[in-house]
Design the sequence.
């Protein structure tokens, strides 16, 4: 242990230095060699058809983890709600952070984003569900997975449908008695949808 | 000189540790155990504390080897935290690797505490064989290491002259990442031909999700468990995160638990309400690549320059491949000179640049601009505003950053108006 460096006898030094020289020059030569270098994606040993690692996931496992909802409604569960029941959910479980109604209040700085406004995109003060969100299904997906912030995934599916209906109604998108469920939610046309365009930049000289 | 030589020749040429220690013991030197309990330090009798050396303090051996290293007590780089993010002190970095504890953070519901033994990754949806992988499984696949940068796409702050590089654009960092190529796992589960998109979901309290084109998975996406030679840090997604070299930070989903293949994007909140931005009268979505950007980190606020020779240094990067050149102006944009790029220039990586600069003490403005291998050159803020409109929001802004050099050598950020 202790002999690591202190124990090297002076007379060995030329030998050690020589070894180092061989190592270093060998290394330098390597870097300049024209031999093909294995890229990260190729191996010196051919890959098997499968590595046989991991295991098949069961249908039950997938079902319990798969909570996402797509714009076409795929993933929406059974259940329903309206803005009338949703208002109660909102007031008891959301208003503390998002404000009394979800709308911006003059002079009040909320700890969470403003959720409600009119549906006018041009000249908007902040982005809201009404003036910016392109899909109604995203409200259900996001609220179910991430809200309320301090207790995510604590709402029942009916509560999520109801509070989604409340937010859509408060943003002047659906009527107060509209029933929101797996059938109706994907059909809600969001006012800002028409503004969305894919980024088409691919590099090159142009600044866009 | 001669005298010294004679003195030296009196000392034995071959000093063995045993002899030295033995000699000291014979001379009656005391030994004590340090608090570490292992290192033994000699305590010299007071009468020995006289020497011809003019130093005030006796030179004593420092602490011995330890289990975990630390920074010099004279170096105190720190991240700059807010409620939702913390920023890398770019102005304090030397070279291109960000020490892991200084890597920027951005998360949407805090840092989860995940037991690696219990963590699993599920891959399902439009695949032939839905599968679950443990961390152990993932580590047994062919393992690849790659150095690249990460950058939050909301990485531009402005507004006052007294801003550091950390405050302006500290939401970018660089690490050496180690993990398994996502394509390796795609091969195991079998991707259906129509599966053009996949969803990546994190195990944080936000269950954060993003949709990613499957082509990126075949190209260079990785699932990483290593960062700079050790397990990735909790703030960076321990035990595993998705790594999409060159693409906006938010898509590099941390604490990755699930990947679902689909024939359409999922339009999650993070790719609609967030991470989109107004361009003229439209909303631009799916901006994946981070545009080429550079910043001079030295000299930068709050440093001061002195007249004479200085070196301008900084970082340049692009999500679209390699940096091909960095130009620097030392005369407020009238002329631009080529900076030296530090080799090797890696693809989608922070690239170090430098330019020797003789400062004659006059007031001026310095800035850098990068060009990448697609021929794209970093724009001015005005160019961005001219195209996108003043209502362009805060995402994907990569303007040239100028520093004002005052007569007293102080360096100030030059904030520019969007109007």
Sequence:
């Amino acid at each position: 242990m202790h002999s690591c460096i202190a124990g090297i006898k002076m007379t060995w030094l030329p030998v050690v230095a020589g070894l180092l020289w061989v190592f270093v020059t060998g290394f330098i030569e390597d870097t300049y060699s024209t031999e093909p270098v294995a890229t990260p994606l190729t191996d010196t040993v051919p890959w098997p058809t499968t590595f046989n690692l991991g295991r098949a996931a069961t249908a039950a496992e997938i079902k319990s983890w798969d909570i996402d909802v797509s714009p076409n409604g795929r993933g929406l569960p059974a259940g329903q709600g309206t803005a009338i029941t949703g208002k109660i959910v909102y007031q008891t479980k959301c208003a503390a952070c998002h404000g009394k109604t979800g709308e911006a209040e003059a002079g009040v700085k909320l700890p969470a984003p403003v959720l409600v406004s009119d549906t006018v995109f041009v000249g908007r003060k902040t982005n809201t569900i009404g003036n910016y969100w392109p899909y109604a299904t995203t409200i259900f997906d996001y609220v179910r997975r991430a809200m309320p912030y301090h207790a995510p995934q604590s709402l029942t599916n009916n509560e999520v449908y109801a509070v989604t209906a409340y937010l859509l109604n408060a943003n002047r998108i659906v009527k107060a008695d509209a029933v929101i469920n797996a059938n109706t939610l994907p059909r809600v046309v969001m006012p800002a949808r028409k503004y969305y365009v894919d980024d088409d930049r691919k590099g090159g000289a142009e600044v866009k | 000189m001669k005298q010294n030589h004679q003195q030296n020749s009196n000392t034995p040429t071959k000093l063995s540790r045993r002899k030295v220690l033995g000699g000291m013991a014979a001379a009656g030197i005391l030994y004590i155990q340090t608090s570490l309990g292992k290192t033994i330090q000699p305590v010299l009798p007071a009468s020995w504390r006289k020497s011809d050396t003019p130093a005030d303090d006796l030179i004593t051996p420092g602490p011995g080897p330890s289990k975990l290293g630390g920074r010099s007590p004279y170096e105190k780089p720190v991240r700059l935290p807010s409620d939702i993010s913390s920023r890398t002190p770019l102005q304090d970095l030397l070279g291109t690797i960000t020490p892991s504890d200084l890597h920027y953070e951005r998360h949407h519901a805090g840092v989860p505490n995940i037991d690696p033994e219990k963590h699993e990754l599920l891959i399902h949806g439009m695949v032939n064989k839905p599968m679950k992988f443990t961390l152990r499984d993932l580590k047994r696949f062919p393992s690849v290491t790659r150095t690249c940068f990460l950058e939050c796409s909301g990485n531009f702050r402005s507004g006052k002259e007294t801003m550091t590089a950390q405050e302006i654009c500290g939401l970018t960092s660089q690490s050496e990442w180690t993990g398994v190529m996502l394509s390796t796992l795609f091969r195991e589960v079998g991707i259906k031909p129509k599966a053009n998109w996949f969803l990546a979901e994190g195990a944080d309290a936000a269950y954060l999700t993003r949709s990613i084109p499957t082509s990126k998975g075949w190209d260079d996406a990785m699932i990483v468990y290593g960062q700079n030679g050790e397990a990735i840090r909790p703030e960076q997604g321990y035990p595993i995160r998705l790594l999409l070299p060159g693409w906006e930070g938010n898509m590099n989903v941390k604490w990755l638990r699930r990947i679902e293949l689909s024939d359409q994007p999922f339009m999650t909140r993070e790719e609609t309400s967030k991470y989109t931005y107004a361009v003229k009268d439209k909303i631009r979505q799916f901006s994946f690549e981070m545009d080429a950007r550079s910043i001079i980190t030295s000299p930068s606020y709050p440093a001061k320059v002195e007249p004479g020779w200085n070196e301008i240094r900084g970082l340049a990067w692009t999500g679209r491949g390699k940096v091909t050149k960095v130009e620097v102006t030392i005369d407020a944009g009238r002329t631009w000179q080529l900076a030296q790029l530090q080799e090797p220039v890696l693809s989608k990586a922070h690239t170090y640049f430098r330019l020797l600069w003789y400062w004659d003490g006059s007031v001026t403005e310095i800035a850098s601009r990068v060009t990448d291998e697609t021929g794209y050159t970093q724009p001015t803020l005005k160019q961005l505003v001219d195209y996108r409109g003043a209502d362009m929001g805060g995402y994907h802004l990569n303007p040239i950053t100028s520093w004002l050099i005052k007569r007293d050598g102080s360096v100030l950020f030059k904030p520019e108006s969007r109007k």
Observations:
- Chain B has three domains: 17-42, 80-276, 293-413.
- Residues 17-42 of chain B form one domain.
- The longest helix of chain B spans residues 17-26.
- Residues 330 and 366 of chain B are 5 Å apart (CA to CA).
